[in-house]
Amino acid sequence: MRGSSSSLGREIELVRAWLAIVEIRWGGGVTFSAEAEQGLDHANVPPMTLLPVIASLVSADVQSRLALRLAATRDANALRIRIIGANIGIGTSAAGERLGATHERLRAIHGDNASASVETVAGETEIVVRIPFELETGAD
Fold first, then answer.
1. Containing H/E element for 44?
2. Which CATH number, 3.30.70.270, 3.40.30.10, 3.40.640.10, 3.30.565.10, labels domain 6-132?
3. Which helix (H) or strand (E) element contains residue 118?
């Protein structure tokens, strides 16, 4: 992925492919589901935005049972991507550093219109990535 842009659909497929390798390599205990509002598969997302965050959560304790859900919605002019899980390892230094690096990278690309943050909602941890909503060129 050396291009300057990707799509939400491609980034989700990249996560799924990586998780398939994790499953083979370590026998994995990770389940992953992704839901996106209609038409968001073609939303522009900087390449390698999701995988480093997911990888840091999984590598924090690959032997544990881990269920992650990704939910993507459009909120006015922003694409909001939530990665949701109970007891995920964002408290680890590696996971926190990767999330911080993702936040800084998104801010460098989109300025104040982008962020990556952690929230706790109803006992679950949510990593929220927010970027300006744009469709990839040629998408309807």
1. strand 44-45
2. 3.30.565.10
3. strand 115-121
